[in-house]
Amino acid sequence: MTAPAARERAIREPGIDPWAIEAERAAAAAGFRRPDLRPVPRAQLVALGVLAALRAVGLVLIADAVGRGIGGLAAGGLDAAAIRAVLVAGLAGALLRAGAEWATSVAARRIASDVKRDLRARLWRRIAAGDVEGGGTAILAADGLDDLDDYYVQSLPALIAAAVVPLIVGLRILGADWLSAAVVVLTVPLVPLFMILIGRHTQQRTDAALSALTRLADHLAELARGLPVLVGLGRVEEQTRALDGIQGAYRARTQETLRWAFLSALALELIATISVAIVAVFLGLRLLDGTMELEPALLALILAPECYAALREVGTAFHASQDGLAALERAKALLARPLARDIRSRGRAEPAPTSAPSPLPTAGESADDRTRMPESSCSRRNPLPPVRLENVAVRYAGRDRPVIEGLNAELSGIVSVAGPSGSGKSTLLAALTGTLPADAEVTGTITGADGAGWAPQAARAFAATPRAELALHGAPDPEAALAELGLAHVAEAAIPELSPGELRRLAVARALARVDAGAQLLLLDEPTAHLDRAAAERVRAAILRRAAHATVVLASHEPETLALATMTVPVGAAAAPATAPVSMSHPTTETGAVTRNNRDMHEAAPAAPAGPADSAPAGPADSAPAGPADGPADRVTLASLIRPHLAAWAGAVGLGVIATGLGLALTAVSGWLIVRASVEEYIMYLLVAIVGVRAFGIGRSVGRYAERLMTHSAAFRTVDDLRLRLWRAIAARGAGSRRLLEGGAPVDYLVTLSDDLRDQLPRVIAPLAVGVLVILGASVTTWFVVPHLALLVLLVLAAAAAVAAALAIASERGAGRARVAARSEIVRGTSALASASADLRGNGASEAALAELDAAAARLAHAERRAAWAAGLGGAVVTAATSILACTVALLSPASPAEQVSVIALLALAVLEPIAGLVTAAHRLPALREVVRRLAPVLRPAPSAPWGDGTLAEPVASIALDDVAVQYPGTSRPAVTDVSGRAARGRWLVLDGPSGSGKSTILSAIMGALPVAHGEVRADEAPLPSLDERAWRSRVAWCPQDAYVFDSTLRGNLLLASAHDDAPDDEALHDALALAGLGALLDALPDGLATRVGAGGSALSGGERQRLAVARALLARADVILLDEPTAHLDAPTAAAMMADVRGATADRVVVLVSHRADDRRPDDAVVQLGSVRE
Questions:
Q1: 425 and 531 together in one domain
Q2: For the sheet containing 567-570, what is the strand order?
Q3: Could you tell me if residue 1105 is inside a domain?
Q4: Which of 634, 723, 730, 618 is closest to 1009 using CA atoms?
Q5: DSSP class of residue 964?
Q6: Given this model, what pLDDT does residue 884 score?
Q7: Is the pLDDT of residue 627 over 60?
Q8: How far is residue 495 CA from its own chain's centroid?
Q9: Separation in Å, CA 159 to CA 30, 316, 944
């Protein structure tokens, strides 16, 4: 598939992600992915080459020491000079090898950290610029780039070692025995040949697995963001099954890839084993007929496997690093994309910061003082330069007609953008802030719009608390800015726990802070939506206070807010009223498309109410409050996570022990065979050993292949079960902890921490068990062969393993925890950046947010380097200990037969790999425990409403609230109390009250998502606790405030309302959209129901998104409909028409409505007035 064809398919088909397209393109263009070393400085590559050479020299010295010691022992004994030569060569070789391996791991980790840090910084800047979108891109920047570790830490050093080690080792073999060197030279090329042949096939499988991973990542990100909608529609279990299916497909794809990758490793090991066997056969035959000495034969036997091992490690590391290579290519492809077009041009200099406006009057001031606006007349300073729009046109992808076309205007004063819902008001504001979607087609010029403060319709925050968010946006005094809008009491609250009204005021406060810091343009999209009258008056007063310091452009459907304007710019249908048709292709004047309202800028600001207007309901203090565990069953540990798959893990450990044991037997018997051949006259006495060597070699390779497959299968199944548990736990806690649903927390739990656990488990569980058993097995073998060395071997190996593991754990405990914390911080920060990029960009706060992410990346790099020092130090201890033991065995057993001593010496060299694996696993253990610790609070049982097993035989006819009080889990007091009311068919129940008074909380209690602390909720006189939970949830549909619109089609979003086997047809979907007032929009779309709505519904206006959510709720097969601010973002005529249609469509259902609009209620509705908020 060509690149243009791939891009066309991405546009035409739903669900196609750029990652997948790029993977297919890369696979089609080149069947084999060549490593790209360009990001690495040449000096670091040279350093790795020097270290590889030093390691090779160390190997040669160790082989010389072992060969000389055993050869001298076989010849009758070692004199003082020989002993001294063995000690010098052995110690020097052990120190060189250990030091070079340690330095290589540290240097490679530094390279990986530097490359990841650079790529992350560049990707973050593209995300912040709005050039790349999608949950997959955020996960690539946050989590996907960590796959580069395997590439730079394993593949790159192995590649360099493959070019250096065989050359040095081969030259030493040539100096000892030319025939053995010739065999090595003839057989070594088989390793890269098979590596390339199998690698070509593996590459295609890897690309397919990456596509599955991309779908899983995007699906998880969408599920996390839209979880409240899924809960409200009762679709959690259905989406759980979908999630299980997607991760099952990913597991199958990945395991197929692993089978081919491990088969490649199997083939390479078999080739190396057979080749070394050929060398051994030649050596043995020549030793039998006396044409070769034992010492050079031992040296060739010890060094020959190193020639193949260097190349084999390249193949193994290369296959292990395919995800990293793919991540690198995806990152480069995203960075190579063209920048999104911004039609704004700088037309004014950045002014000096203005003095902050005076705080609002307090309750003790006079009425005259409260209504008198501080001096802010435009006459007190030079008039602000206007904002000019010339021939501005915007057309969204998938739309035939532009939303805005040929708009010319000169904006000054307080400007209202007028038009019905969907006419392009938010589009115009997005054009002024440069935050239009990357795929939108934009033409024209905007001058003077740089340096703005912006409050979008659907605000997203980057920081954790309101105070931190305002500081990020440059507020001179965050406390005063919060107090001005009645938010002082939530200054340190978690932003995800704010009510929609509080979040709206925080967005306005951010924009006002930008003006206080010097911005001369204030852009506000629905600044008073979701607000009660008192809170709205605060916002309007604050807007007027900035009128002298900035041009204000606002869009609103509320008459009181529109009345602030001194100029009106109509868009959409309002741009050409029937009474005065005006072409938008000519400059506007006061009598044309732009009209000035009869309002003086000097008019006093509205009175500010005394006291706080709002307060967030008390919420959990943590993202996943766990509280004290109720008992041992509630404790979440590593053992409890793997217990359901204990048989698979036990099998993996057993296969690992068998494969490692066969490898040790292969090495030990090979040594015995060579030494015995030097004194044996007849080959028939050696045939059993020869056959054993061949069997051990094949068995080791096959056993290792089976162990790898079973280990990774067990890890995938463990993490898949864990991810489903996490998903259900987050869904269960969602209503009680908004923080758990926002800020990247779900992605952190479901993707980053879960994947981290999946990667760590195979590298910890099996290696720990295998390493311990190998130490015991080597000691027992020594007791049988050379009994007096058994205790020494046990002490040396156990002490080396214990000291190395203790060093690794001690140094990793702090570094590992810091690394896990930094990774989580990066994941959450990247998710917040992707979500809030438009808010940050529009407010000029992107650099401040990027600086925080850069600091987190620096902390991660520092933690990774500390971890590399620790891991390398532990490995160096084991390498030195086993190498010195191998070199000194002959010196410690002068009276023992040489063939028996050779078994122990070569066994000491062979146990290096499993014991080093044990140390590496111990090094990873603190990080693994930290991952489990972070997951534990979410996995512990969450407080939930009690349920019974009752059912309702008939459709629900009424809902009653009897003195209800609701308290969030983990808090000390109720969020709302003393609520009583009744809703019935044909008679709606309306919940009214100030922002934050608990209206949405009552809806959660009616759904059964929050337990009732006091009183009772009844359905047809049946208390909710007596009903079956699933049966009740199927009777209720909830349309939340700012309901999430999934990155799919109109059809896909609507079909979420019903079960898959009960999906409505297209006619029903058309009817639902018509009832919600979207019939005209649907008719104008060329693709109809198949039209993509963009990430978060970015291709729709705020009002269109809200109406789509209402249509989705109407499609649900529910008896009870809960509508939370359904007319927010709608103009009055559209809201009235939609509510009339909704009332007609729900005449046979029970409806509970939350709304600040008095026009949404009817005289016969039951109204419950909730009290003031609690602080």
A1: yes
A2: 452-455, 521-525, 551-555, 414-418, 567-570
A3: yes
A4: 730
A5: E
A6: 94
A7: no
A8: 20
A9: 20, 11, 55
Q: Which of 916, 889, 884 is nearest to 93 (CA)?
A: 884
Residues 513 and 662 in one domain: no
Please check whether residues 267 and 146 belong to one and the same domain: yes
**Boundary of a domain, candidates 530, 551, 575:** 575
Q: State how many domains the chain has.
A: 3
Task: Tell me the C-alpha distance between 119 and 141, whole Å.
Answer: 8
What are the beta bridge partners of residue 982?
A: 960
- pLDDT-derived band of residue 319, with 50, 70 and 90 as boundaries? low
Residues comprising the chain, all counted? 1175
What integer pLDDT is reported at residue 358 of this predicted model?
44
Sign of CA dihedral 701, 704, 710, 713: negative
**Phi and psi torsions of 1022, nearest 5°:** -95, 120
Residues 6+ apart with CB under 8 A from 504: 455, 459, 526, 527, 528, 529, 530, 531
The rounded distance, in Å, linking the Cα atoms of 1075 and 63 is 84
Q: In the block, which residue shows the tokens 């891109």? A: 137
Helix (H, G, I), strand (E, B) or coil at 447: strand
pLDDT in tens, 974-998: 888 889 999 999 899 999 887 777 8
- As a whole number of Å, the CA-based R_g of the chain is 36
If you average pLDDT over residues 646-663, what whole number do you get?
92
**If we measure between CA atoms, which residue out of 183, 198, 199 comes closest to residue 305?**
183
Burial class (CB in 10 A: 0-12, 13-18, 19+), 331: buried
Q: What is the pLDDT of residues 322-333, one digit of tens each?
A: 667 777 777 777
What CATH number does the domain containing 803 carry?
Answer: 1.20.1560.10
Q: What was the pLDDT predicted at 807?
A: 83
User: 697 with 762, same domain?
Assistant: yes
The closest alpha carbon to 348, from 516, 518, 511, belongs to 518
Query: Containing domain of residue 266, as a range?
Result: 31-338+631-736+743-939
Residue 1010, both tokens: 């929050």
Distance between CA atoms of 88 and 90, rounded to whole angstroms? 6
Residues 974 and 857 both lie in one domain: no
pLDDT confidence of residue 630: 41
Question: Final residue of a domain: which of 910, 939, 968?
Answer: 939
Give the residue with greater pLDDT, 552 vs 437: 552
Same domain? 1026 vs 893: no
Query: Does some domain include residue 305?
Result: yes
Q: At what angle do helices 687-733 and 646-677 cross, to 10 degrees?
A: 160
Q: Check whether 698 has a pLDDT greater than 80.
A: yes
Residue among 571, 584, 574 at smallest CA distance from 406:
584
Task: State residue 683's pLDDT score.
Answer: 74
Alpha helices in 451-499 (DSSP H): 466-472, 478-484
Q: Would 546 be classed as within a structural domain?
A: yes
Instruction: Give residue 821's identity as a one-letter amino acid code.
Output: A
What confidence score (pLDDT) does residue 993 get?
82
Q: What tokens does 1054 get? A: 């609507």
Whole-prediction pTM? 0.68
Name the token pair of 446.
């905007």
**Among 251-265, 346-360, 568-582, whose mean pLDDT is lowest?**
346-360
Dihedral sign for Cα 199, 205, 209, 211, please: positive
pLDDT of 353 higher than 90 = no
Whether residue 303 sits in one domain with residue 380:
no
Taking residue 973's Cβ as centre, other Cβ atoms within 10 Å add up to 12
Instruction: Please say if the pLDDT value at position 349 is more than 50.
Output: no
Same domain, 891 and 963: no
Contact (CB, 8 A) for 303 and 59: yes
pLDDT digits (tens, 9 = 90+) for 296-305: 888 888 888 8
Q: Do 1107 and 1099 form a contact (C-beta atoms < 8 A)?
A: no
Name residue 1023's beta-bridge partners. 1018
pLDDT (0 to 100) of residue 274 = 80
**Above 70 in pLDDT, residue 682?**
no
- How many CB atoms within 10 Å of residue 444? 17
The pLDDT > 70 percentage for the chain reads 80
* Residue 216 and residue 250 in contact, taking contact as beta carbons nearer than 8 Å: yes
pLDDT of residue 364: 35
